[in-house]
Amino acid sequence: MWKLGDLKLPLRYIFDPASDDDGVTIRVPLAALPQLDAIELLWGVPGWRYELVLQLLKSLPKEIRRQIVPIPNTADSLFDELQPKGGQGLLKQLCQALHRRGIMSVTPENFNPSTIDRYLQPQICVVDEKNRIIEKGRDLQTLQIRHASETSQAVNEQQGVHTEFPEHFAFSKNHHSAGVVMKQFAALVADEAGEAVSIHQYTDVNAALQAHRIGVLTLIKGKLGAKKKQLTSQIDSIFKLAFAPLGDMDKLKTIVIDAALDAALEEHYVLFDHSENLPESADDIAVGLSEELPFTSEEYTQTLEVVVNNFLLTGQSVIKTLKNVYTRWQRIRQGLLMLDREIFGESIDDIEDQLEDLHLADFVYRMDYSHWQQYPRYLEALQIRLERLEHNLDADLDGVYALDLHMERLAGRADKEAISEYRWMVEEYRIQLFAQPMKTRMAVSPKRLSKMWDKMG
Known about the structure:
Layout: E1 2-4, E2 7-9, E3 11-14, E4 23-29, H1 38-41, H2 49-58, H3 62-65, H4 71-79, H5 90-100, E5 123-127, E6 133-137, H6 140-146, H7 148-151, E7 156-157, E8 172-177, E9 180-190, E10 197-202, H8 205-221, H9 227-232, H10 237-243, H11 249-268, H12 284-292, H13 297-337, H14 341-358, H15 363-366, H16 369-372, H17 375-389, H18 393-410, H19 420-434, H20 446-456
Parallel strand pairs: 4-5
Antiparallel strand pairs: 1-2, 3-4, 5-6, 7-10, 8-9, 9-10
């Protein structure tokens, strides 16, 4: 057995260097795949760990390797400093050990685990509930991304519809599947009308938390009363007219209320410590989400009070942001209509692709608050680009060509959580290409984008 966090997984060993199955294979039910931790897996089998460390050191770039020769001696000297249960991954601990020896330039990204012998990295055998093999591979992140759409779905639903936070709600519990004990995570899932919730179970903690957040906001929405009308009465005719091509006034009111709730929770949440409810493999996103969400009726009461009290003030700021977005969008639409497609066709196509990926009709539902808050910047940059375009066509086309590879990668995938960091870095890259001297949120370059894409898998 191999214990990974809360999971206990059966192992099989084959000695056959000529076979793809050489080494240790971990049998994992599909539903448990999101609960595996790539950092934990890389520690490998204890008896082979020295060889793993040696080969990882040999995978470093030449300029770093020169500083640690002879490499076997370096592996010997730092091996005893590594602590598998220290809460940090093997690559990070190797970097820290090398930093202590004066090699400050090394980072986890400098290692190349794909070059090490196959047997040193456990093989993951994904099986269904009847123990039938679905897929095998040694790259956990690739397997998780490939099966994300299946593993992020709720595995079952409990009967009952709630308009109040249910007293019997329990976020995590153990569940048996294909002979393995794994965690299941509960979420209050909103109904289609957005008026009530029911309890669903997930094996992907991130999917559960994201669904639970919407469910909690649905319950709070039912308690706003007259505050909803107070807020939507501040939608003026300019805002209404700018949004009109995308929907009627009822749709706009709903968007404003939901966006204001989203922002009020994000800016004014009560901080809860739910670390005991999370699996050891939980990432920073899951930890952050869990801290702002109630898991009990008492916590919900606290959250309800703080969100309702801040709803109107936050909502005024949200109306200002959304009005800015839609009025800029209208100016951009008008600017595009003025351009001759025969001359500016490639630039127009690129701008239309960008607008399509921004999903202006419903972006507040598609992405988190921190990202949709940046929309005024993205549209301001687009306006600047359009103003320059007629006298700047060659430079604009250079930018379009620089974006080609990135837009191909994002085609049909811009909404995928797994590549979210890359997707928003591309949006910042657009500002750098077309709207200087506007500032980007982070340092961005073709090299950084390439590294980010490799990291995303």
